[in-house]
From TrEMBL:
It comes from the Bacteria. The keyword Aminoacyl-tRNA synthetase does not apply. This is Biotin transporter. Its main location: membrane. InterPro entries: BioY (IPR003784). GO terms for cellular component: plasma membrane. The chain crosses the membrane at residues 32-51, 58-76, 88-105, 117-140, 152-174. The lineage of its organism: Bacteria, Bacillati, Bacillota, Bacilli, Bacillales. The keyword Transmembrane helix applies. Gene3D superfamilies: 1.10.1760.20. Keywords: Cell membrane, Membrane, Transmembrane, Transmembrane helix, Transport. It comes from Rossellomorea aquimaris.
Length: 191
């Protein structure tokens, strides 16, 4: 079933706002060069609740708002210069995360779907984000001394337990929501 344009615009705005809140739950907590945020959770919920296409659109709206100057990225950053921020790859990855989670949960709402969706979300987030961060800190941003590809992944290793927990909680929220409100993701094809 297709969502109305008005509903889609409202939901994209809502999830862009939730991403801004998630980006700044702890603006001063930074490990290595990477801030602690809840953006991954809202990107997963966007894909799971709005579906792959609208979820990805919501994340694109978020990215566009930030690039246009709204202080919606982590540590209340925003503006066109964010394109060069070492953590911009993570922001880009949220589009892929929402799309992938949506795609999986439109097809499978069982333990296999939740596990695959969660793993895909983490893999896309970490691979796109960490590689972008490595390239940024190697070529144009100021890197701490001794910075290397291994150090970049070392920073992310610290995040992994937190993000595994965040991903698991997001999947539990989605599972409960689907049970309570089966119409939640309009692109879901029930078999
Ligand atoms: O600059 C931004 O707005 C993006 C920040 C990205 C933070 C990443 S997302 C995955 C990992 N988990 C966290 O809590 N922080 C990093």
């Amino acid at each position: 079933m297709k969502m109305s344009k008005t509903k889609e615009i409202v939901l994209c705005g809502l999830f862009a706002a939730l991403m801004a809140v998630g980006a700044n739950i702890s603006p001063f907590l930074v490990i290595g060069g990477v801030p602690v945020t809840l953006q991954l959770m809202f990107a997963i919920l966007a894909g799971g609740m709005l579906g792959s296409r609208t979820g990805a659109k919501a994340m694109t709206v978020y990215l566009a708002l930030g690039l246009a100057g709204a202080p919606v990225f982590a540590q209340f950053k925003g503006g066109p210069s964010s394109l060069l921020s070492p953590t911009f790859g993570f922001v880009l990855s949220f589009i892929a995360v929402a799309f992938a989670v949506g795609m999986v949960l439109e097809r499978k709402r069982n333990i296999f779907g939740y596990t695959t969706g969660g793993i895909l979300a983490l893999v896309l987030n970490y691979i796109i984000g960490t590689n972008f961060m490595y390239v940024a800190l190697s070529f144009w941003a100021e890197a701490p001394s001794g910075f290397s590809y291994t150090v970049a992944w070392g920073w992310m290793a610290v995040y992994l337990p937190l993000d595994l927990g965040v991903t698991a909680v997001s999947m539990v929220i989605l599972q409960r929501l689907y049970k309570a409100v089966p119409s939640v993701n309009p692109q879901y094809v029930s078999k």
